Each structure stands twice: as C-alpha cells, then as structure tokens.
Model the fold of this input.
Amino acid sequence: MKIFDVKQLAEADKVTMEKQNISSLELMERAAGLVFEDIHSKLQSAQIPIKVFCGIGNNGGDGLVIGRLLLEHGYQVTMYVVNYSNNRSDNFLQNYDRVKDITNDWPKLLKSENDFPEIGKNDFVIDAIFGIGLNRAMENWVGKLVEHINISNAFVLSVDMPSGLFSDKIPTQEDRVIKANVTISFQAPKFVFFLPQTSDYVGDLQVIDIGLDREYLIKTPSNIQLINKEEAKAMFQPRKNNTHKGNYGHTLIIGGSYGKIGSIVLAGTAALRTGAGLVSVYVPKCGYDILQISVPEAMVLTDENDQELITIDFELDPDVICFGMGAGTSSKTALALEGLLKKTKNAMVIDADGLNILSNHKDYLSLLPENSVLTPHPKELERLIGSWQDDFDKLEKAKKFTKEYKVILVIKGAHTMVISGENIYINNTGNPGMATAGSGDVLSGVIAGLISQKYDTLTAAVFGVYLHGRTGDILADKKSYQGLISGDIANNMGEGYLDLFKN
Done:
C-alpha cells in the first residue's frame, strides 16, 4: 500500500471531485459518513455520552458531519467547536449550518479554558480538531484542551489524524497530542503513524476507502510502501514440482562464540524452515556438538579456535553468507571478518556483533558486497550512522548511508522499516511478544534463507520481515505475548507461508 504525503492527498481529492463531478462538501459527507457507519456498527445505538470536538477547518467539518449523523440516529451527542481562529473553511461553515437546521441550536463554542466541558471516563470522545494540515504549534489554551481530553481517560476516536500530530515533523510537546484509542484514517495511513516517536498516539489504526480516484492512486509514485499480506503475497516465489535441494540455494551462517552458540542454532533453523536447500554453519569448535544435535539438517564447519572465530577459512561456495550472531567483537574476530569481506563477492546478511564490528571499524564498510543486508536494532543503528535528532532525521541519515555504501538497512522495531536509497518499506506484522532474545537472529536466518532461494536481496529483506512478523503473530495468538520465544518462530516459519493463502 502506498503512503502518500499531504500534497498528494490534496491532489487526489481535487482529481476525484473533477472526475466524479462532486463538490468538496459531498466528498466530505461521503468520508465522514463512512466514519459514522463504523461508529454506529460498533455502538449499536448504545446511549453513552458522545462528545465531538471540532476544529474550524475541514477536519472540524468532518466532525460536524459525524456528530449530525449520530444525532439523527438517536445518539446522545454534544458538539463543541474549538474556536481558535476567525478563519473557517467553507465546508466547516456549511456543515455548521446543517447542525443548526436539525437541532435548532448551535454547537457549543470553546474560546478558553473556562469553557472546557467535564469529560467522564465513560464518555466517547470524537477528536476532529486538527487533521493532516496542521503545521504549527497550537494556541496555548487549545493545547490545554488536548491535555484535558487525554487525562479524562475517556475513549477517544481521532478522525484521520490525532490532533496535534504533524505529518512531517515530531511534536515538541508530547502531552499536547491526542492519545487516541482508535484513529480512522481516510484512504491511506500516514507515514507518521509508524514512527517509534509517534506511533503510540494513533492507537488502533483503521483505514477506510473513501473512493478517491483509483487511477490517480495507482499512477502516483510514492517512495514509502506499507507491506501487508497483499504486497507480501506478490513477492512469494512458489516451488516447482520437478526440483531438488540445489534449486533452493546454499546458506552459510557464520558466528557464535563460547556461550553464544544458541544464536546460530536459531538462525540456522530459521534459514532451513524458510526454505533454503542447504544450510551450513561455521562456528568455533565449542559449537560443534551443539549444532550437530540441535540442527541435524545443517552441515557444521569449525574454526581452528575453540572459543571464538579467528580464521573463517572454508572451501564452500555458498549463495549467501550470514555473519555476526553471537560472534563477539574481539580484535581477532574483527580481523577474521575483514578477511571474509575482502574475498566475498555475493551480497551478505550482517547482524548483531557483525554490525558492532563494522561500527568499530568504519573502514570495513567500503568492503561490503553491494546490496548486502544489514539488520540493526536502534542502538546498533546509532553506532553505524551516528546519533539523530528525531525519527525523521534518523531516516534521512539511514537513506544516505544506504546510498553511500550501496546496502540495504533493516531497522528493527514495532514497525520494522527496510531502507534502500530513497525507498522505505514499512512492515505491518509483528507484535510485542517478539521482543524476546533471539528474535533478530531468526530474522537474519529468514532473510539469508530467502536470498539463497534466488530472491533479490531487497525483496528478501522486505518479504522476510513480513514473513517473520506474521509467523510471530500467528504463534502469539496460540501462546500469548509472554509465552512466545524466538525458537517458536524459527521452528514454525511454515505458518507464515500458509497464511499467505488464507482469506
């Protein structure tokens, strides 16, 4: 799913009105009407206090439509207009009059803190104060209204965008952004919904199709994609009947040190369960017995050292090498990685201590094979690219890094993002249960296993992140967030594949 910016969405509205021969007021009625239908289907005419807070722009106009429709269906509704300016949009004014026509009264005007209504924890609050066009700080008393709503503990539904959230920058006053329980977004989600610093404001995200012009949406390019099942399914490469293990490639996983061999077990298992035809592992001698017992399908090669990697010498010709899990960062292991980089031509997957070694030896970065995949968590990323001011700055630095070194970054998080040049792919699977030791090792094995099956490295990264997260979602439903461990994910990657073809 494409993620569009504010200008593109405004143009989509304009094109839609022209092609469908409708007014902006009619488009607003359609969009807000769909929000009403969603609310009505859930509340089922329940008589709970509903408070609708409307700004004086088009987002406020949406709120007036929703409030009017709720009143017409017998709900207990009070509408408030947040009167922060004398400038009102035409659509707001017309819907303001429509409310008056059915109630014989105007919505209540809020002009200062003295006008704030009491909000109970059992109230249903609809936030339609500001939409995606907000680009400056709120008036002080409006900010305090947002605080007033947040501390009420009422259920809050935001229309299109939680008020106070900007589309292209991070808010400076965290307590002056609506903390929604649900956000209903028009046509497409907004990029800011998925950033670590701002995603918690959104709550449960729903996206409703308001019928914007399909041709415009298809033809308009976007550098940001949200990856759901539909996109992942298009990446999947099914197996042919007449094949053998050689058709699915050879993955070599290198890493481990004394006490940290489990990470290689997880990565090797994940690569096999993802479909690699052959998996070999290269570990210190201390890992030999563990791997032979734990992953009997893998071939085991050992370093000359018993405790850590110091040589990395093998005669294999793998399709992909995955390096770093549990390897440690000693000077000898770092030198071994340098030697490996100098003789490796195919794209690699580098994780964990492999990333830490690169951070400690920045000159190694120029040795990375083109299109290699690096899979940092936030602290590993910071060591690679330097500190950042906020999430937008972080992503700009990440894009610059991928262009400079011709690599792909997989930035792990609640919404893991794959960065390749100017392109960002946002994953929409995964859950808090996957915040557990070894989950990243599994992901590296998954991506490496896909590359060995001839997925290009970018597709392997994007599809692998989706598949890893979806498998975790399926298993969390069975085991709970608390009961999920990374070994469950590694051993059950088939669940993610099977889910691609379920309705």
